[in-house]
Write a structure and sequence with these properties.
The protein folds into two domains: about 5-60 and about 375-420, Urease, subunit C, domain 1; about 60-370, TIM Barrel. The chain has 13 helices and 16 strands. α2 (about 85-100) packs across α3 and α5 (about 175-190) runs parallel beside α6 (about 215-230). The protein is of the alpha/beta class. About 55% of the residues are buried. The strands form three sheets. Strands 1, 2, 3, 4, 5, 14, 15 and 16 form an eight-stranded mixed β-sheet that branches. A five-stranded parallel β-sheet has the order 9-10-11-12-13. A three-stranded parallel β-sheet has the order 6-7-8. α6 links the parallel β10 and β11.
């Protein structure tokens, strides 16, 4: 129910200032924030929401999600054993759970199991009020090449006939600048908000590695140029510095992961204002080396984390100490449910990123990355009333963002929930 709401904050992080403001109030009118400050008078007709025992923040944003599967333990099977309709239901489930856990906006960076556009239908249905759920920005399919990190028919590589058949139904998988120019145009025609490309190999897939370039230079340039001509930004899955430098040369807008970054590339990112979402959590067992926990990973993921752990550790320190203004994203396909977005907070805190840098990444910086900073990302007059609250100590408790105490999206309050993983922690 909308109308006037008067929110009493114990502490407030507004998304702008690197501090908690004590005893501030927020006045919400319909779907927007009308006033925020320490001395706001309560209108007689306003509903009072007392969060004086909680820390209030903007609604959190996860800028790197794959929403189209039910369980990371069965993700590979789901690629080929569930229908597009079932995958669309998984997207809806993910959006709804994220909302109840305090993440009011999420960005889907390409389907892992799906080859369709169900995520765009869920996005539009939520926007139209047909379902509750987190606000979605999405690239339905990623641009990739045969045998690359985006080609999930790799698992059938020793049965070439089957592998080729499965590769051919991933319509954004191909070769050559002309193919990718058309693939970008199709992706935009069907409604994707931005373009995602798989520039290098990765950790999750079985027959590639994070250091490989998997789109050639002309293909990368064609994708980026075409997307820009059509008014869309481009972000890239990328690990190796050599490919990061090429992407920057061709005008890339954003990059995901960047886990093997070097000093020269770090400066290029800053100089060219490239938006980086580093996704810390998928590599935690290698960063804080834990061979027992690594056993829970898929075999090829585990083997590559073991191989790259020293470089990952070195480069994590570089990322933490860099001056890059990062976004916050999870990329959960191999260690947590995709809607458990609060785990990334734990990874940032245990890497030494600090509370306010992490909260900024998950609020205003992510709003900028999603091109929504005129609407969300901070608690300021005129912004949409996307507001979350947390009763755990955000300064000291790494599990704080897994335990949501209050959530509001566009002035409407929803039931808040905690991840079951935090019980007893």
């Amino acid at each position: 129910m909308k109308g006037l709401k008067y929110i009493i904050c114990g502490k407030l992080y507004n998304g702008v200032d690197a501090e908690f403001k004590e005893g501030w109030k927020i006045l919400v009118k319909d779907d927007k924030i009308a006033e925020v400050g320490p001395d706001i008078e309560k209108p007689d007709e306003a509903e009072v929401i007392d969060l004086s025992d909680a820390t209030v923040t903007p609604g959190m944003i996860d800028a790197h999600m794959h929403m189209d599967f039910w369980d990371w333990h069965t993700i590979r099977e789901e690629v080929y054993t569930t229908s597009e309709e079932m995958k669309t239901l998984a997207v809806l489930k993910t959006a709804q759970t994220c909302l109840h856990r305090g993440f009011t906006t999420i960005r889907h960076v390409g389907g892992i199991t799906s080859n369709g556009f169900g995520v765009l239908d869920v996005r539009d249905a939520i926007n139209a009020g047909k379902f509750e759920g987190a606000r979605i920005k999405a690239a339905a399919r990623f641009m990739c090449t045969a045998g690359s990190h985006g080609d999930l028919s790799q698992g059938f590589a020793r049965n070439p006939q089957v592998s080729r058949m499965l590769q051919n139904i991933r319509y954004s998988c191909g070769a050559g600048p002309d193919f990718f120019r058309n693939a970008v145009r199709e992706e935009i025609k069907y409604g994707s908000d931005f373009i995602k490309i798989m520039a290098t190999g990765g950790f999750f897939t079985p027959t590639d590695n994070p250091s490989q370039q998997q789109l050639d230079d002309s293909e990368m340039e064609a994708i980026i140029t075409t997307a820009h001509q059509m008014g869309r930004y481009v972000t890239a899955h990328v690990y190796s510095p050599s490919e990061m430098k090429k992407l920057i040369k061709y005008g890339i807008d954003g990059m995901e992961h960047c886990s093997l970054i070097d000093e020269e590339t770090e400066q290029l990112i800053i100089d060219n204002h490239v938006k980086v979402v580093p996704t810390f959590c998928p590599y935690e067992e290698a960063i804080h080396y834990d061979p027992v926990a690594l056993k829970d990973k898929q075999p090829e993921f585990r083997a590559k984390l073991e191989l790259y752990k020293d470089r990952l550790q070195e480069c994590r320190k570089r990322l933490v100490n860099s001056k890059i203004d990062f976004g916050y994203g999870t990329d959960f396909v191999a260690n947590h449910m995709n809607y458990d977005s609060g785990y990334e907070f734990k990874a940032w805190m245990e890497s030494g990123m600090g509370t306010f840098r992490t909260l900024r990444a998950a609020t205003l910086r992510n709003a900028e990355i999603l091109q929504l900073d005129d609407k969300i990302g901070s608690i300021e007059a005129g912004k949409l009333a996307d507001i979350s609250a947390w009763k755990r100590d955000l300064m000291t408790d790494p599990y704080a963002l897994l335990d949501c105490a209050f959530v509001m999206k566009e002035g409407k309050q929803y039931e808040a929930e905690a991840s079951p993983d935090v019980e007893g922690k």
